[in-house]
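can u do me a favor
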């Protein structure tokens, strides 16, 4: 036998009454049992859940994913337009820094797992976010004389232990 593709067949064991097996053999013949049972199962599935419906549901799921991706990217780009020239070009080193500032403009504040999930797609990359925040604050201190983000312990606006914009007007147009 050659290599099988992603739709490889799986063997299953089915218990049938002798009389039912005799009827299958009379209809399909002993050598065609497997094909007959396979076709009967497919026919029944097509009756209960037509293939067209399956295709449409898969397409809808793909469209939903695309729309969610576009909404996320569009929301970030809208807020990127609100950043002033200093924040865009001098304080931010790259696109991730600009997206980080846009996140703060949109949400006012965020925890490191939230930021890591939103920007990097992995809530475990908190250390990367902390390093970026430190670098952003250091550049801001050098350029405008004060940090733009601060960490507040405890609950602030329903977030515990989150980073917040010190002065939103310092990064907005």
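np, heres the sequence
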């Amino acid at each position: 036998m050659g290599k099988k593709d992603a739709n490889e067949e799986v063997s299953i064991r089915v218990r049938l009454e002798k009389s039912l097996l005799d009827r299958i053999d009379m209809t399909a013949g002993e050598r065609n049992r497997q094909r007959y049972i396979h076709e009967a199962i497919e026919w029944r599935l097509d009756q209960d859940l037509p293939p067209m419906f399956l295709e449409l549901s898969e397409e809808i799921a793909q469209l939903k994913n695309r729309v969610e991706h576009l909404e996320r990217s569009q929301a970030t780009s809208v807020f990127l337009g609100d950043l002033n020239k200093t924040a865009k070009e001098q304080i931010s080193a790259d696109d991730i820094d600009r997206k980080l500032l846009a996140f703060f403009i949109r949400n006012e504040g965020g925890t490191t797992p939230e930021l890591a999930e939103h920007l990097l797609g992995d809530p475990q990359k908190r250390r990367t976010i902390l390093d970026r925040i430190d670098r952003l604050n250091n550049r801001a201190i050098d350029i405008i004389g004060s940090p733009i983000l601060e960490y507040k312990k405890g609950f602030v606006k329903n977030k515990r232990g989150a980073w917040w914009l010190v002065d939103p007007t310092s990064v907005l147009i």
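The longest helix spans residues 51-80. hope that helps!!
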